[in-house]
Amino acid sequence: MYSNGGGEAIQNKIVSQLRDRGINTITNLNLANATAQDGVITCGNVVMEELDAFFSYNAGQQTPYQVYLYQVLNESVPCLNNYNAFALSEDKLKTAHKLARAGVRTTDYSLCNRTNKQSLKQTIREWGGRLVYKPTDGWGGMGIVKVEDERSLDMLIPFLDQTNIPHLYAERFVNYDMTDYRIDIVDGHYVGCYGRKAPADDWKTNITSGGSIMMREPNDELIAIAKQAAAITGLEIAGVDIIYDLEREEYVVLEVNGIPAFATPEQEAMGLNFNNAKIARIVDLIERKAIEQRAVKQNVHTLEPMLSKQYA
Description:
alpha+beta; Dna Ligase, domain 1; four-stranded antiparallel β-sheet; 22% strand
């Protein structure tokens, strides 16, 4: 669990509520300090495969090594979020493509080989001269560039040529009111919503890009879209970012986040009061996953002597 922005207090509440349900917890299991050897992953003195569930919640601070072990551990222990859904949510193209295939409205997008720049130029013409270039991975608005016309695209491409990215990913710029909705879904349930507003001199709503928090109440359509997006991506815990396309007069899913932040103490003072509901749903989810894993282990232990006798 992340420790800044009130994360330590959130963790304590989760641990306390799990303890009340008879579930013991081990904190600070940082996979950066883990090793894998002879069929087990060890973190400190803990054999990770012996856990009934592993809950990881630390956006922006996971190294490739941690993510790699996360993927391996997911094969043996229920991880929250599950690795496949988490990996999908980390890739903007894969997320948008899966949502679009399922009929969820996303921004128009285009992916082309880095050598096929003519395709990107044709795309910007079809989109009326504006697009947003994005790395397919990353978070917090980092690396995102708004391109206003084909001339600007020509200026951007030489810079991209200096990078080692294998492909170019772009989205049609959506004409919106410079605000968005962040809707949190846990285990298929709506738990909270807030909005973000871009600063006066920018168009990105991300807090790390200068955006600010605003109070928002979602309507039934927004909640339904968010639940659908979470289900399609397979995320048990999701933060769905949605904007309203003023030209097409419809809601559009921008991203589905696998580690959506809790409200900070400052944001709670503003009136964002969804933390307790989110914690309660997460505790329910962890308990259910742990119980399911215990049942699997018990069945395996029961079957082992029976199979040994059968094939002796």
